[in-house]
Amino acid sequence: MNETTYSLEWRGTRKSGLSYADIESGLVSGELHSLYKIHVNGKWIVLRDFVEQQRALPPAPAAEQISPTPSSFQPGSPSAVPPPAPLGKAVPPTPILPIPSPSTRAKAPKPVWFWPAIIISSTVVLLLVIVLAYMRATSRTGGQRSGSSVPTSSAKPSHSTDAPREKSTPSTATTDHNLTNEEIADLKSPYVAKINTLWLQPGKDGKEEVTGSSGSGVLIKHENGYAYFVTNRHVVSMPENAKEPKFSLNFRGKNHSFEVVKQGRYELDLAMLRIEYSDEANQPPLRSARLEDLKAGQECVAIGNALGGGISVTTGVISAFDDWGEGKFVRTSAPISSGNSGGGLFRTKDGALIGITTMASTSSQTEAVQNINLAIPMDYVLSDLFWEKF
Questions:
Q1: Is the pLDDT of residue 63 over 60?
Q2: Domains in the chain, please, with CATH?
């Protein structure tokens, strides 16, 4: 049984003598959160990393118990297990029967046709290899002369999923080959949905009027007949006096009614939605990239429902990484407009989803702010520690 205890600290407040079971219990009850720092092996690390490491450890293997009783031992039985010897008495070694030498075993004589058949079959195989090599060399030479060979890079990317492109990529292609903006838009736009929320609320004259908001969402997974999307919490938030809310998510050209199932913890501007959807065969999960794989200067593409007018694409670079408590935001120069909230930020290098766009740059009376837009990294989106029930 692990009796190790730990010390935790959050903004000057320290808690000591906590076991790992106490930590798990505190996370469930809300007395602790995963942004605490924990003292482990002589250094302070973020609690979320420690908990994820502990949960990833394989369970301890159960000890096998074999308890033969003395009465079950029958000399001469192949499966018999001899009883333990009395203390102070040596156990005589079990006699080892001699294994007959291969030379003493009778060998069946080879039939008359055996060696001629071996020679003929070997000759046929050799001739086939020579013919195939000649045909391959001939076709390669003919292609070069006629100029009909087509470079692999000219093949058009698939319009529905990432999988066909990954299968058609030649094995000699380098991993740092940049996709074009057109390819990113073509491959990733089908994963981004348009979200609209409408409700009734009293107007200035006291009469109820229709109002609402629009935003974007990104498909994260398929599970048990549902498709799950991540967006910003403010996209689906409504005032307390709102009436008759209507949630609509347009995915692959069809409108779906959705429900909010989770929201981000620690004031993270995140919400998880789901719709009934079973047509997942042609849409595998998106590839994601973590903070540790990102670098300032990498090119990226933002895809979202800008101004509520439909899916659009903007480009930029990863500018920096801004502090958020114990975590980070991804800052990008890709323009983010109203309606882009909850959309996807994709890395041009490999098409990986690197964040959920959440904030656009603003200006004040004293200074202008341009191209400073933020996205929530996938580290938080993909970790259960940063989600709670809505």
A1: no
A2: 5-56 (no CATH), 192-276 (2.40.10.10), 291-379 (2.40.10.10)
